[in-house]
Amino acid sequence: DIQMTQSPSSLSASVGDRVTITCRASQSISSYLNWFQQKPGKAPKLLIYATSSLQSGVPSRFSGSGSGTDFTLTISSLQPEDFATYYCQQSYSTPPTFGQGTKVEIK
Amino acid sequence: EVQLVESGGGLVQPGRSLRLSCAASGFTFSTYDMHWVRQAIGKGLEWVSGIGTAGDPYYPGSVKGRFTISRENAKNSVYLQMNSLRPGDTAVYYCARGVGRNGYDYWGQGTLVTVSS
């Protein structure tokens, strides 16, 4: 199985900050990388698919980049509603696997 | 409006079985692959099964041989039959709509499965 490792596991940031979350795959996954946002008590929400494609309705302050084994999710200007846990997921091979999550907290 | 509604969760003893259901509405169910993803309380996400439009099932090693996914297009429903349950299977189970390799674009609200004596 492909292992997905996110860093950091948690971070504290202020409204308006630029935030970057990194996801590394244990082997090349081409561009088959998706990002999800999850708020407490809620189901995950698809933010970005295929590394950099923004899901419909997701604000443009979210962006993704990378290829091969290294990927990033960037929030250009953190908003109050962005405080949540973020997960990357590879869809290159079965079983699809998730990173352990990055919790974005208010500083 | 796309909706996914899970049911069937509850408390079950180790070694027993449970069947989860997911009722879909608001889209052409037969044209999408469907998935189950679970999350232990306070932990991360784990994919536990998927089923293609042709009814082809997929499982990770952790549940293969114990869990069976199926779909009934006439009822716009997907099911997860869970046998030989273990305490480690305790989690919220989410039903999700797959969009090929582009992740899961709609999720249900989840149903809690607790495996305990």
Keywords summarizing the entry:
A: 107 residues, mainly beta, four-stranded antiparallel beta sheet, 50% strand, B: 117 residues, 0% helix, 51% strand
How far apart are the termini of chain A? 36 Å
Rg of Cα set of chain A? 13 Å
Helix content of chain B: under 10%
Instruction: Look at the helices and sheets of chain A and give the structural class.
Output: mainly beta
Q: Please give the largest β-sheet of chain B.
A: 7 strands, mixed
3D shape of chain B: globular
Low-confidence stretches of chain B: none
Looking at how many chains there are and whether they match, the oligomeric state comes to heterodimer
Tell me the series of helices and strands of chain B, N- to C-terminal: EEEEEEEEEEE
Unreliable runs of chain A, pLDDT <50, ≥5 residues?
none
Mean pLDDT of chain A: 97
Query: Average pLDDT across residues of chain B?
Result: 97
Q: Count the helices of chain B. How many?
A: 0
Count the strands of chain B?
Answer: 11
The total of helices of chain A stands at 0
Tell me the distance between the termini of chain B: 40 Å
Element-by-element helix/strand order of chain A: EEEEEEEEEEE
Structural class, from secondary structure content of chain B? mainly beta
Estimated radius of gyration of chain B: 13 Å
